[in-house]
Specification:
The protein is α/β, with parallel strands linked by helices. The chain has eight helices and five strands. The termini are far apart.
Length: 227
């Protein structure tokens, strides 16, 4: 009887021990899931002066206004600033690896091409650079919102058509959300642009952010499903 009692006792200890380990594992799993649910989505803004806030106080720039709008919608997002005034698509493609090496990125807004258009640069080169950027982001499983640009009318209809076609083609890629024109609704409206007639003022940025916010929220939702 003592033998049977001791054996039963040992078996009970094993069972309770197993249950204890199982409870710990479940608690850790739930804790990790809870932590992941609260972890912010890190959104890379890869762009030029339009997203760098050229000519504006920091608080009025695109990134500051976007951050405020996301916060107001309860979106837990950290912006990674990869916007440099004056950048062409060649410049941005050349520094992307450095940007990604320095920060964890879950999603990306790509706003480029304006300086290529202003300088009348090759649309073939622009497409090559943007393709390289999208390929690099796709290889890291980073969903993208590609916001396009339109070439200045002074460069002619043929150049403008080729320029627009680059963004239209890339906008159909898998894993890419597409916005055809970053400055939509702003050109030709003095109350929404700075004295140079190109860069949005604070009011213009507010319009940009309001228009793009639904797409950016969708982008963030896609990023959450991949991480």
């Amino acid at each position: 009887m003592k033998y049977l009692y001791g054996r039963a006792r040992r078996n009970g200890q094993i069972v309770f021990g197993f249950i204890g380990v199982l409870c710990v594992c479940i608690a850790l799993a739930l804790g990790m899931a809870h932590a992941n649910a609260k972890a912010p989505v890190r959104l890379l803004i890869l762009g030029d002066s339009l997203t760098a806030g050229y000519g504006l106080p920091v608080a009025d720039g695109f990134q500051a206004q976007l951050q405020a709008a996301l916060r107001a919608h309860g979106a837990n997002v950290v912006l990674v600033n990869g916007a440099v005034s004056g950048d062409t698509t060649t410049d941005a493609a050349a520094r992307l690896d450095w940007v990604l090496a320095g920060s964890t990125v879950d999603a990306a807004l790509v706003e480029l091409g304006g300086n290529d258009g202003l300088r009348g640069l090759s649309t073939v080169t622009m497409q090559h650079n943007l393709t390289r950027i999208l390929n690099d982001l796709a290889a890291r499983h980073i969903p993208v919102l590609l916001s396009g640009m339109i070439a200045p009318p002074s460069l002619g209809a043929a150049y403008g058509a080729r320029f627009k076609a680059v963004f239209a083609a890339l906008g159909h890629r898998k894993g890419v959300l597409f916005d055809p024109f970053f400055l939509q609704g702003l050109p030709g409206k003095p109350g929404l642009v700075q004295a140079d007639g190109l860069h949005p003022n604070a009011a213009g940025v507010r319009i940009e952010v309001k228009r793009l916010l639904p797409l950016i929220l969708r982008l963030i939702a896609e990023a959450k499903t991949q991480h």
